[in-house]
Amino acid sequence: VGDKGNLLEGVEPSTEHIVAQGQLCIKGLNAFHFVNHPERLTRPMIRTNGKLSDTSWDQAIELAVGKLQEIQKKHGPDALAFFSSAKTTNEENYLMMKLARAVFKTNNIDHCARLCHSSTVVGLASTLGSGAMTNSISCIDQTDCIFVTGSNTTEQHPLIGSRIIKAKQAGAKLIVADNRTIRLARIADMHIRWQNGTDVAFLNGIMNVIISEGLEDTPQEIINAARMFAKAKKAMIIYSMGITQHTHGVDNVKSCANLAMLTGNVGMSGTGVNPLRGQNNVQGACDMGALPNVYTGYQKVEDEQVRKKFEKAWGVQELPAKAGFASTTAIDMAAEGKLKAIYVMGENPMVSHADQTHVRKALEKLELLIVQDIFPTDTSQLADIILPATSYAEKDGTFTSTERRVQRVRRAIEPIGQSRPDWRILCDIASRGGYHGMQYTNPSEIMDEIASVTAIYGGISFERIDQTGLQWPCSDEEHPGTPVLHSGRFARGFGLFSPAQYRPSAELPDSEYPFLLSTGRCYFHFHTGTMTRRTRLLDREEPCPYVEMHPDDSKGLGIRNRQWIYVRTRRGEIKTRARVTNSIKKGILFMPFHFKEAPANRLTHNVLDPVAKIPEYKVCAAQVRIAE
Amino acid sequence: MKALSDDELRTFFKAIESEYDVRLPVCLHDGTRTIGKLDDGNLSLCGGTVPGKITSVFFPQLECMLRVNSDGIQMQQPVSKPLLVAGLTAADADCLEFVDRFFGTTYRDNIYFNKRDNAAIFCISGWCDSNGRFMKITGGNCDVELIFNKSRYVVKTYSEIGRALAKKMPSGISVSQTEFNKLHDVSQSLPRDDEELIQKASKLITAGKVPQEFWQEISDRCIACTACNLACPTCTCFDVFDQVASGHHIQRWRLWDSCQLEGFAREASGHNPMGQEDTRTHRRIHHKLAADVVRWGHVTCFGCGRCDQVCPTGIGIKAVCREIIKRFNDTD
Q1: What residues of B are in contact with residue A375 (Cβ under 8 Å)?
Q2: Do the bridges between strand A190-192 and strand A235-239 make them parallel or antiparallel, or are there none, so unpaired?
Q3: Helix, coil or strand: residue A153
Q4: How far apart are CA A358 and CA A527, in angstroms?
Q5: Which of A295, B112, B276, B303 could form a disulfide with A299 if both were Cys (CB 3.0 to 4.6 A apart)?
Q6: pLDDT tens figures, A399-411
């Protein structure tokens, strides 16, 4: 922190943190820089006569509450939806959830886990009993074989990717199943590149070999991978969005769980099914019940006993009994005119949700859009009310990491301008709405309340996690936390082996749209770019939108590297730059979704996994042409 | 010669804050040691090399160089008090001496010297490494050296500023020349493994014994986190950019940069002379171990070990040197 106490001047990694161990990735080493960016939202704003203008906190809160209540009265509580945020703290996610349910009486509460790991939450909960990483990051150091699929780990989880590199150097086997020649593929014992979207067939193939060795029509590389995985004393599966973002995302996840169960790789260190969560607190946002069907700790809203417990704890009556809409479904409902208001905290659906034209139509149709954020976004441009929030550096709270570790974040500087921490804003909204059960002097009190209603967080308090954090389940004040899930028995009792049948992706290439378009992330940017594109070095590294294509494909179309081209799908068209690279397979295009000037999500297909309601970001059909 | 306790030194540092902007090793809430102010945490002189880039006191990660508004250009204000920086190891003092030359030769970097001029430098040595091992006595390159004799810090001065400061310290207890000589002998007898390792690798690189395939192999294991550059006390590269700030003025900033990034040497056309990963990995090592030998007459890695500590994949400069020697030393 700089001399005047309000400027972040740099960052140093914690040498004592159990995971960081004195190291950070490129984003971490630069994450201080956007905090003081001049474009920070510093005053509340309201839209009058179509234009946004500054207002006071008092007026903004009064207007927000007044309109929410008016719509609730006119159209019923389920005409409202609340989008919570995986960037905010556990305490803030808990309060957003409480606000939706206790104050406005709707279960229409969700957040961006819908778009990344909702298939994991559903798929692993139904097979193993808990929708989280079964093991700890440190297990990578103890395994004999690592199977990485659908995760560009060194780019998206660099410190975890680094541990995989070190484990490989130390003698562990590494199997990478990924369409692109990612960095891990370069050092892997085996790199398998199957067709995008055929994950279930591939994983079933591996299991088939393991069960009935000797099938003659199985490709040799599948046989080799199956043997390598099955022979390892301890083997672990690591996966990410290459597995989850499909219309068969839940089936993919279940297949991963099946493979681990079939080979006995659950419940011990150095094994397990390990989904890598993408945001600082996406695990916590799920744990806090910022989901339409569960309260904190995955307690079901449809369970009357659970509802009674929360009614008592919160001092309210008649909590809604029916599960709410997923955020993806909420957008569809808004487009149909059935949903009237959305309160968005720290999310940018205009850039993150599939099929941007559809999202715009839906948001424009709303009677009320409230956006609470730290920067102006494509979503806030459509807002009726903007509430300026603080960044991580200006507030206290907790985040839960991908390995279920609940840990502290601490205030380093005062809030910028008139911005306020999200938890304060949410409390103000609740109080103005006439509810007096959301008054706290600090986030520590909120965590105490969370612990009192949540078994897996029962033993968590600010005092206990002051230094290193604790991994849930942590049931009481004496409980040491749980580094490895399912040891001895599965969380659900018995593991449920649920075979999945291969179903093709919803939209495959054809003569009109001959390419398969897959979307994802690049190394330097984070999601919709609201923070990283305002971070000097990160934006300098990737300042332009791009699409990766194979040299054989570009040659055929006369496209040169870095040339501007149009990419078109049945949803829309964007202008972007060609990045010609051998790391991608012929016939496939890959595009990161960070760039609002060429949003990949104008192209993606808003077709959902039937159970998890996650869109198929990884497969749709596209065509390209030269832009000049 | 006098020897002071931790408490006596803390009292001295606290008192001298009226004259100096004091920065020294402190232990933060989570246990991480860093260079900070006395109020930031517990004084932590012992514990070995402080993990962060030690030269950041004079050359921070992000810094406003100048402001422009309707009244014209405002340069950085002169510092109100000179800095007093404590906690440098012998290697750190060598790094600082080099960075002083780097920023002072040919073009004098006024922003750096705004903080560096008149600053007092305190080195730390003796039985103070993290594992209780002896750390080399600097023997110069600083104003004051605090040599830990397992119970107290023997105060040795090397400059007028140092002697003036020593006079303001409590009297502590007196230490004989014989005891100092004993410490000096321990320092002299320390193995010089790191220095030899770096020199040997430097010679192999200079002699063209390290093929490009080796750099490709190392770069395959590099995730381009840039931590090596950001922790290195002799890395001085920075990026310059302008920002329109609120209140209708423009700020010009500088920010640590990294040669491990593709954008570092990218030309406006998009062409990049350092566009390949192996080229960048090669440069990281070659610059300090070969190019600087030609430019400055010596290697510019002083073996502080920070890059080896922060590298998530184990390819810090000493690790790479060891691999070079293992693989290419006996080939002729």
Answers
A1: none
A2: unpaired
A3: helix
A4: 19
A5: A295
A6: 999 999 999 999 9
